[in-house]
Specification:
The protein is of the alpha+beta class and 483 residues long. The protein has helices spanning 3-6, 57-69, 165-182, 222-241, 287-296, 301-312, 316-323, 326-338, 343-360, 372-383, 389-402, 406-412, 421-433, 436-443, 450-460, 467-480, and strands at residues 7-18, 73-74, 77-78, 81-84, 94-97, 104-112, 118-130, 134-138, 141-145, 152-158, 194-204, 214-219, 249-254, 259-265, 275-276, 283-284. Helices cover 40% and strands 20% of the residues. Bound molecules: zinc ion.
Length: 483
């Protein structure tokens, strides 16, 4: 980017992750994005007078687990606050959040920077809060669905340690993978379960003082975050080039038109009149709970990468790709364990053949038409010399298309590779005997004619000869004619 030569960029990200609890944060309403509008609402989450919220304990557990997994300090005691503002999809007139003392603070995650070196991105705080309802605008009519009101979120506030759009994307992918590994967030981007606000500011290279920042709201894909940051960097750079000032604003990004638009001139924290939530008691996390939740943490992405490299002997690039998604990692492990050959081969097949088709048809790996053990069976057939690598690709396509097992397809296609040496020697002898001219040529040093013999061999066996064995046998027979 041209602007990056002239300006330093400071990027900070705030992520809102929806916690994967069954019920809402302060009431027992079910969380169900697909339910009929306004059917998952009660007196509490719709903010009726005289009702009282009661904290869902799972919310505290999930938020704490994410905090532990991102090296945060857990606050044994934390409080809820009210953030007051009016919006039609917020019937209470305030959002319950954590302002003065959040559940956790001072953490970090590690990403790889542009040169592949490790870079720490600090996490300022993790706070528990609730989501609002949803407004949809159709022509002149606005519709409100309160089903989402009171859905628990954690806001993960990152420090402004990010310098490029790539780093922003790497940071988000890492957070997303940790959240989904923990199982505390479904991570579904299309449904907005993981969304991000981006703060960007620019200052001339060498300047100590940072520029005024803007905030771009509610980006819900890694790509959109990168694009929005690029657009905002260009927009600010143009203004600064013209000697204009950056105004502190809240912006929106339209992924289709790639345009940044001004939503409102930014409100400061004091505009929200934060005050302690009187209806909820402080959250107290006991030492025993902390220990228990820490013990319950699963193997996290970084640890899995390291283990895959040592346990399966695969390169770090492969390990990164295969562990980015927990389900993909499990799939790989199942194949690698059942496969008798080298795990690197299994990794290749999954990264190239399987992922290509899964991406093409937009299928999740846990719904793959080729199950892990069937892929292992296919790879074993190649490893044992029953079919060739080339045949395996055809078998794989049929397995994927028709959801059939490896052995069934191999049988159906009549693809049994002939590795029986006796039978192949017979065929080779016959070929040599009936082609004296070519034998003469070969014996007089025309090595190229060797391909002719192997070709006939494959033709005679309808392509089913094990190519390596066929090669060896033909060579041996021809060489024996030399004397
Ligand atoms: Zn409710």
């Amino acid at each position: 980017m041209e602007a990056l030569k002239k300006y330093d960029v400071i990027i900070g990200l705030e992520v809102h992750a929806q916690l994967a609890t069954n019920s809402k944060a302060w009431c027992s309403c079910e969380i169900n994005t697909h339910a009929l509008e306004n059917t998952k609402v009660c007196e509490v989450c719709s903010g009726q007078p005289g009702t009282l919220p009661a904290l869902n304990k799972k919310v505290v557990e999930y938020a704490t687990k994410m905090a532990l997994a991102t090296n945060c300090q857990i606050n044994d005691l934390s409080y809820f606050d009210r953030k007051n503002y009016f919006y039609p999809d917020l019937p209470k007139g305030y959002q319950i959040t954590q302002f003065e003392k959040p559940i956790a603070q001072d953490g970090y995650i590690v990403i790889a920077d542009a040169l592949g070196a490790e870079k720490k991105i600090r996490i300022e705080r993790i706070q528990i809060e609730e989501d609002t309802g949803k407004s949809t605008h159709e022509g002149e009519v606005s519709l409100i669905n309160l089903n989402r009101c009171g859905t628990p979120l954690i806001e993960i506030v990152g420090c402004p340690d990010i310098r490029t759009p790539d780093e922003a994307s790497a940071y988000l992918k890492k957070l997303h993978s940790v959240l989904t590994y923990l199982g505390v967030c479904s991570g579904n981007l299309q449904e907005g379960n993981f969304r991000c606000d981006v703060n960007v500011s620019l200052h001339p290279k060498g300047s100590e003082k940072w520029g005024t920042r803007t905030e771009t709201k509610n980006l819900n894909s890694f790509r959109n975050v990168e694009k929005a940051i690029e657009c905002e960097i260009s927009r600010q750079a143009e203004l600064l080039d013209r000697g204009e000032k950056i105004v502190q604003q809240t912006l929106g990004f339209d992924a289709e038109t790639m345009k940044i638009s001004v939503l409102r001139t930014k409100s400061d924290a004091h505009d929200y009149r934060y005050f302690p939530e009187p209806d909820l008691i402080p959250v107290y996390i006991t030492a025993a709970e902390k220990i228990k939740w820490k013990e319950e943490l699963p193997e996290l992405p970084e640890a899995k990468v390291a283990r895959f490299i040592t346990e399966y002997g695969i390169p770090s690039y492969d390990a990164e790709v295969l562990t980015a998604d927990k389900k993909l990692a499990s799939y790989f492990e199942a194949v690698a364990r059942a496969y008798t050959g080298e795990a690197k081969k299994a990794a290749n097949w999954i990264m190239v053949e399987l992922l290509r088709l899964l991406n093409e048809f937009n299928i999740d790996v846990d719904k793959s038409p080729v199950e892990s053990l069937e892929l292992a069976a296919l790879l074993n057939a190649v490893h044992d010399g029953r079919i060739s690598g080339k045949q395996a690709k055809d078998v794989f396509l049929k397995m994927f298309d028709e959801k059939k097992g490896a052995d069934a397809v191999i049988k159906e296609l009549g693809l049994v590779q002939i590795s029986d040496t006796e039978a192949l020697i017979e065929v080779a002898k016959k070929i040599v005997d009936s082609n004296p001219t070519q034998v003469e040529q070969y014996l007089s040093g025309k090595d190229r004619v060797f391909g002719f013999f192997v070709g006939l061999m494959m033709k005679e066996t309808k392509g089913q000869a094990n190519p390596q064995i066929a090669n060896d046998i033909m060579k041996e027979i021809l060489e024996s004619r030399k004397v």
